[in-house]
Each structure stands twice: as C-alpha cells, then as structure tokens.
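Possible regression after last week's pipeline update?

I re-ran a chain I had predicted before the update to compare outputs. Posting the input and the new output here so someone can diff against the archived version. Not blocking, just want to make sure nothing changed silently.
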Amino acid sequence: MGLKSIRHHAGKLPSIRVYLVSMNLALLLLFMAISLLFWQQINNFYQTEQAEDIASIHDAMQARSASLVRSMALSANQAITGYDFSFLISLMQQVTEGDQDIQYCKVLSNLGQVVAHNRVDQVGSLPDTPVDKQALALLEEEFIGDQVTDFSIQIIDTPSAVATQSQMMQVVTPVFNGQELWGILYCGISLAAMQESINERTAEWDEEITRIWVFYISVAAIFILFGFMISLFITRRLLKAVDQLDAGVKEVSAGDLNYRLSMQGLMCAEFGTFATSFNRMASNLESSHRALDDYNRSLEYKVEERTIELARSNKELEAFNYSVSHDLRAPLRSIEGFSQVLTEEYQQSLDETGLDYLHRVRAAASRMGVLIDDMLRLSRLGRQEMRVGEVDLSELANATLSKLVESEPERQVSFQVEPGLMVQGDRQLLAIALDNLIGNAWKYTSRCEKAEIVFGKAVKEGKSCYFVQDNGAGFDMRYADKLFGAFQRLHKSSDFEGTGIGLATVARIIHRHGGTVWAESEVDCGATFYFQLP
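New output (post-update):
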C-alpha cells in the first residue's frame, strides 16, 4: 500500500479525542444509569417501609377499637341479662364523651329496634341509616346464620352518615342474653385521628425521603464531578502525550533529525516505550543521514574524478579515431591501389586461382573500409550534439524507402507507412536510426518473392511506440540479447552482407533520446523492431 493510500485511509479514521470523549460519556451515562437504578431500589424500600408503618397504625387503631367494643359488649351482656338498659345508655354516654374518636354507640336487638344509644333520643327508634341496615344484614348473615356463641368482632370501613363526613370505621360485635344471641352492638369510630397520624407519618417519611434524595443527589453529583475531573485530567494528559509524539513525528519527517522526544509528561509506560523507540529511530536516521552525506561527498569527489577521467578518455578516443581514420586507411588505400594495378596490368600473367585470390583481397579491403567507417560513425554518435525539434517520422521513412527503391528498382517490395507520425527529437539522428531499421528490413526480405515492409505506430503495455515490420528471414529470440551489440550478427555474412553495427547504432540513438528499443521475431516469419520515445 502506497503512502497516498495510507493517508487516504487514515483520514477516514476518528481521532483519539473522539474515542476518549466517547469513553467518558459512556462511563458517565453508565454511572448515571447505575445511580438511578440504585435510587429506585432505595425509593422502593422506603415506600415499602412507609406502607408497613401506615398499615401498623391502621392495625393498632383496629385493635384498640376492637378491645374497647369487646369490653362494652361484656357490659352490655350483663345489662341485658338484668334488663338494666339505663346503665348501658349511661355507659355509652361516658365512652363517647371520654373518647373523641367514638362518634356513637348502639345496641340493636335481633328484632330490629335500638334498645340503647349514647343519645337517649335515639332509643326505641328503628334502624334507618345505611349503617344500621348494614349492621342488621351482618346480624342475620354472619351472626345468626353461623349461630355465633362468642364475641366476634367485625370491622366495616364506610363513610359516616353523621355531620362530620369523615371516614368512619364501624366495629360490630354480637351481644347475648345468657347463651342466647340477643342483638348486636356497634360503634362508629372516626378515623380522623388515625388519618392525621398517618398524614404526620407520611410527612415524616416524605421528609426523610427528600433528605435522603438530596443527600444522594449531592453525593452522586460530587462523584460525577470528581470522576469527570479525573477523566478530564487523564484525557488531557493522554492528548498532551499524543500531541507531543505527533509533534516529534512531524519534526523528524520535516527533516529535523536532531529532534528528540522528552520522557516527561508521557503518563504511561506504553508512551515511554514509544518515545524510546522513536528517539532510537531518530538517532539511527541521523547516523544514516550523516553517513549518506559523507558518502555523497565522496561520491561527488569520485564523480569529479570520473568526469576528468572521462574527458581524458574522450580525448584519447578522439586521438584513436584520428589514428584509425588516418593510419588504417593509408594501408587500406595501398592494398586497394596495388591490387587494382595487379588486376588491370598483370591480369594476363595470373591464372584463375591467382585472380580469385586477388579479388578476395580487394573485397576484404573494401569490407575493412566499411567497418572502419561504421565504427567511426558509431563512436561519433555519443559525442554529437543533439538538436531537438519536431520530427516527421513518416517523412523520414518514406525518404529512406525511396532511396532503397532507386538503388534496386528491379525488386518487388510492398511497403506501407502510417502518415503523420510526429515526435520530438534530433532529426539527423532519427533519420540514421530509421535508415538502419528500414535498411535491415529491406535486406532481410531480399529472398522473399513478395516482400512487405510496414512502418507505423502501436500501443504496448499501455504506452505508445513505433515499429518497423517485415516478412523476411527473422531470427531466433533466444539470441535477442545480442541483437543490439556492436559487431553482433545472427546471420552469416555469406547469406546477408553487413558489419553488425547498424542495430547498435539504432540502440545508441534511441537511448540518447531517453527511449527504449526491442525486437520480436520468429525464424523465417519476419521481424518487428519497436522503439519508444518520451
């Protein structure tokens, strides 16, 4: 993965600040959820305790009322047995006057008549209130129906019919004449005092719950604030350490190899390990950079030496070229001259074998001259100054083909040149390269009945290139690596004449332009030479 791709993916990732803030918020929400759950449990506990406390007050009121009514029932039994109703009425008046919660007391006979009441004016009346009717129904269904022989307390919570309109509790019990069920006694007891007591207890519970709630909220707020401050402190320390590490990476990447990370304020061992590794890396980079600088200085010195040596070699090569062009050509000219004299003046004195030997000497001298010319031309290509401009390769190819056709008009060659192939380069050098490539195609198709030569443009591996194609002799691709070497030939000179300099010349010209050249071929199936220019 390249650096650009790494930066692209890294840009999509959230920063460490996002992770830390998210973690803090998650912990805060978790603590609040736990706090609410804990408070709900506490609240349920206190509500249960409050309900049990209220129930105990209610039960205590019922027990006190039942005990009072049972005592009055005992007295009522004695009074009824002796038919002393005045005593019973007096007792009821004393009870209602002594206990403000008791609103009234009645004794109702099983015949449905009030025989005793704390209010004398009610004695002898018939039951007419809902409570009286409910008491009579209770007498018939519960006491007479079940044939009760002992005191059985029944408590009825019902709204009072008296003027107070407060909640009332009716405490009902049977009365006996000896062992005979004679009637019922019931008292209306106001629940106002009990309700007041319940309200007081409820207020106390509410106050207690409020106090606990305030305390709990205060403690929770303190813990949340304390936790938030600790989290903020840790987050800031972590971010400070991260910023410090990031600053170090940026400084080193900007070229400051002397920068070192401080071990202070890194907070945790992992950052310390990273800082140690970073400083070690920076030290290694600094050492490598220093060594590279030393190597570059030495390399510059060596390059300078090599440049001087190259200049000296060029001068020696120029001297060698001059020597070759002067010293080698002189003997060749002598050989050619004397051999020509022998051919012209002493032809009659030589037999056929001598003349054959003489012809071979002249051909070898001529071939030697061509080799010298090609070698000198190849050596000059590396020193020739390039004049870069717009070049029409199609025009150069047509010019080369025209010269070849003029040189051998008897040959039947079909050629095709793609028009308008424009490049940037040295016109003279590119003309030499095309002369060699098209000249080779012309030469190696000389034995074809229908020779074909094509020059055009193609695309190889996504890049544009130019090619010269023929249907001639071709070559074996196993020897393609020797193709562009000087004096390298893949065919016998007896089959196809040449010095082996042409393709080396093409390669040197294309390389001077910053391009590449290669070939594809099969034996007897022609060859295609490609070259690519920037």
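Follow-up from reviewer: compared with the archived run. The chain has ten helices and twelve strands. Marking as no regression found.
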